[in-house]
Amino acid sequence: MAFGMLDMLVQNVNLPDGRQGFDIAIKDGRITEVAVGIQTAATQTIEARGCLASPPFVDSHFHMDSALSLGQPRINQSGTLLEGIELWGELKPELTVAAIKQRALEMCRWSISQGTLCIRSHVDICDDRLLAVDALLEVREEMKPYIDLQLVAFPQDGFLRYSRSRENLLRALDMGVDVIGGIPHFERTMSEGAEAIQELCELAAQRDLRVDMHCDESDDPHSRHIETLACETLRFGLKGRVTGSHLTSMHSMNNYYVSKLLPLMREANIHVVANPLINITLQGRHDSYPKRRGMTRVPELLAAGVNVAFGHDCVMDPWYSMGSHDMLEVASMGLHVGQMTSLQGIQDAFNAVTYNGAKALGLEGYGLEPGCKADLVILQAANPFEALRLKPNRLFVIRNGDVIARTVPKENYITLGQQEEAVSFSKDLF
Fold first, then answer.
1. pLDDT digits 0-9 by tens, 233-259
2. CB 218 within 8 Å of CB 193
3. What whole-number distance in Å separates Cα of residue 69 and Cα of residue 328?
4. Pick the catalytic residue: 33, 83, 187, 217?
5. Is the pTM of this model over 0.85?
């Protein structure tokens, strides 16, 4: 029960778990009560009129240092991962802290307006100047009141393949980067990929840090570094603190091998991040037909008890020319390519950009229960099904009990003959 004057009262919302007509009471940056018919007075009241309240969207895998750099020095013509890496390598000598920071801050404004308030961004440490690290550390601090930004020390050119990756990664961690990253499938050999995973996991154990590994972002069924990652997670006592991102090679693996792999991943409590937009664009490029889908086995991983989140990965950069950091677009693409069109599958896709992402990032105080941080998004939709179908306007984006972004409701009208009438795309199905 809320007592005294509230800072904010959000009335008549639907909740992601199906509860309808609830109010959310907010005081001192926290949710104090979620109930029907809260009568406590509030400094600010928002009448949601049956719209969906959601905790903020979580982007579990992003590259903020390259975001919005599209066309510098040119656009990726082949659409391949390797050309993207090549383009980024050409751009790096021209980078400045100011330019990276300016693009990142603009990206944050886009993110806030879309209701994405939690982002894990990888930052390339294979530039010996560590300009991107400097820039994004400044962005993290400046945007701290508005966005939870985690930074991953990411050796884009390979931890062992690039001679100064070890030194640069340690420097980045000492500067305040949060998470240890890697890219074992880009090392020179399979064995060097495994060696890199072992060394990086050992370092994470020593420093008590999380790990987020670009892992098996390949069509190659023999790219099996997730197996090594799960094994080293267990060996170094990192259960629950390790993420394998991408894992697209799993779509090419035979089912017998996967039947052994999934229990190992579950035992290690590995988190998985799929990136539907970018991976269905990058993968399958070496196929004619049949073409591979370019995403990991999301339904199978979920059924095995593995936590799966979705990431946007890129927005208008050397790898992906599109995007606006709308995590509902990511979830929609994920449920389509993952063939997750059951009601449970649609709910799973919504969870992949909210609750599952928060779990992968280890966020505290996330959710819509009493005691949680007063961070939420009011969507012009009645439920998660409708949110994914319509990609609706974010009517209010709330951070610590303050409205930091708002959008007017979308209205559509048609004129048939002499009569104008409103058109609603909402369907009362549930």
1. 999 999 999 999 999 999 999 999 999
2. no
3. 23
4. 217
5. yes
What are φ and ψ of residue 387, in 5° steps? -60, -40
Rounded CA-CA distance 223/229 in Å is 12
Q: Which secondary structure element, helix H or strand E, spans residue 332, and what is its range?
A: helix 327-337
Domains defined for the chain, CATH in brackets? 6-55+367-413 (2.30.40.10), 57-361 (3.20.20.140)
Strand order in the sheet with 376-379: 52-54, 376-379, 394-399, 402-406
Three-point CA angle 121, 158, 61, nearest 5°: 20
Listed residue (422, 398, 397, 393) closest to 408, CA to CA: 393
Q: Using CA atoms, how far apart are residues 315 and 119, in angstroms rounded to an integer?
A: 13
Which residue type sits at 165? S
Is 217 a known active-site residue? yes
Residues recorded for the chain: 430
Q: Any idea which residue has 């330019």 for tokens?
A: 99
Selection from 75, 167, 98 nearest residue 127 by Cα: 167
Burial class (CB in 10 A: 0-12, 13-18, 19+), 190: middle
Reported in sequence order, the residue ranges of 192-348 that DSSP labels E, i.e. its strands, are: 210-215, 242-246, 271-274, 307-310
pLDDT digits (tens, 9 = 90+) for 207-231: 999 999 999 999 999 999 999 999 9
